[in-house]
Design goal:
The protein has about 250 residues and is of the alpha/beta class. It is built from 9 helices and 11 strands. About 35% of the residues lie in helices and about 20% in strands. The strands form 2 sheets. It has a 6-stranded mixed β-sheet. A 5-stranded parallel β-sheet has the order 2-1-9-10-11, with helices on both faces. The chain is elongated and about 65 Å long.
Length: about 250
């Protein structure tokens, strides 16, 4: 079966050089983009009920731009002044760069992992005296608290934002050859928005083991799990899969 139409459950890329655009041009594909999940802020009033004092902590662990935005939003809502001595441990350079939107960047305040959370934990282990706050969503990856527990550091997980299903009621039917997902929340949104959806010949691609597990756990057939050893990106894995399908009669 040749793949001609694909729905990617993420916002459309703004860069014209995106690998998705290149993939579409190369194989004459129609690729649509639509976020299946969205982020909602936890109100400051709700957060107060958790009895977590942000200023009891000396360091913030930031795993995404959402975490950055919602940490500083919450501080503003609670009328807290973050001390200049606060340290920020960022999962990647892009997250660290994004922190500059809110603070004056100083190397002694910002610590950076290479890319994965495991890399960041290696940095955190060198600063065991800090009291860490981890702003997260309600569907935080289990790897994060497990890694911090193993590292033996003092930390507090705090839900600053929630991941909820987007309203996809304007999409009448999923008339695509392939659906592409990047989080378990995307699969939950599929179930919520399209309760009568039957997979049949529709291919489902998932990025990462937790998303792949959610596909199977929700009764769907997993056709493609990225990353692959020979294709670390979703678009690379999709290209291999598209070529394989094109060869089949």
């Amino acid at each position: 079966m040749k793949i001609k139409t694909i729905l990617v459950s993420q916002p459309a890329p703004t860069d014209e050089r995106s690998p998705y655009h290149e993939l579409a041009r190369k194989y004459a594909l129609k690729i649509d983009f639509r976020p299946f999940i969205q982020v909602e802020a936890v109100p400051g009033q709700d957060f107060r009920q958790e009895r977590i004092n942000i200023l009891d902590h000396t360091a913030i662990v930031l795993t995404s731009r959402n975490a950055v935005d919602h940490f500083f939003r919450m501080c503003k809502e609670l009328r807290l002044t973050v001390p200049e001595t606060m340290k920020y441990f960022c999962v990647s350079e892009s997250v660290a760069y994004y922190v500059q939107k809110y603070i004056v960047y100083r190397k002694r305040k910002v610590f950076i992992g290479k890319q994965s959370f495991a890399d960041l934990v290696d940095v955190i282990k060198k600063h065991k005296e800090e009291r860490y706050l981890v702003p997260c969503s309600d569907i935080q990856k289990g790897e994060i608290p497990a890694s911090l527990d193993k590292a033996g550091v003092k930390y507090t997980n705090a839900v600053f934002y929630r991941t909820v299903a987007s309203d996809l009621s304007d999409i009448k039917a999923l008339n695509y050859d392939m659906l592409v997902f990047f989080s378990p929340g995307g699969i939950e949104s599929l179930k919520k928005n399209f309760p009568k959806f039957k997979q049949n010949g529709v291919f489902i691609a998932a990025f990462g083991p937790t998303t792949a597990k959610a596909v199977v756990d929700n009764g769907f057939r997993l056709d493609l799990q990225a990353p692959l050893p020979e294709a670390p990106s979703m678009t690379g894995a999709m290209e291999l899969f598209i070529k394989q399908q094109a060869k089949k009669k």
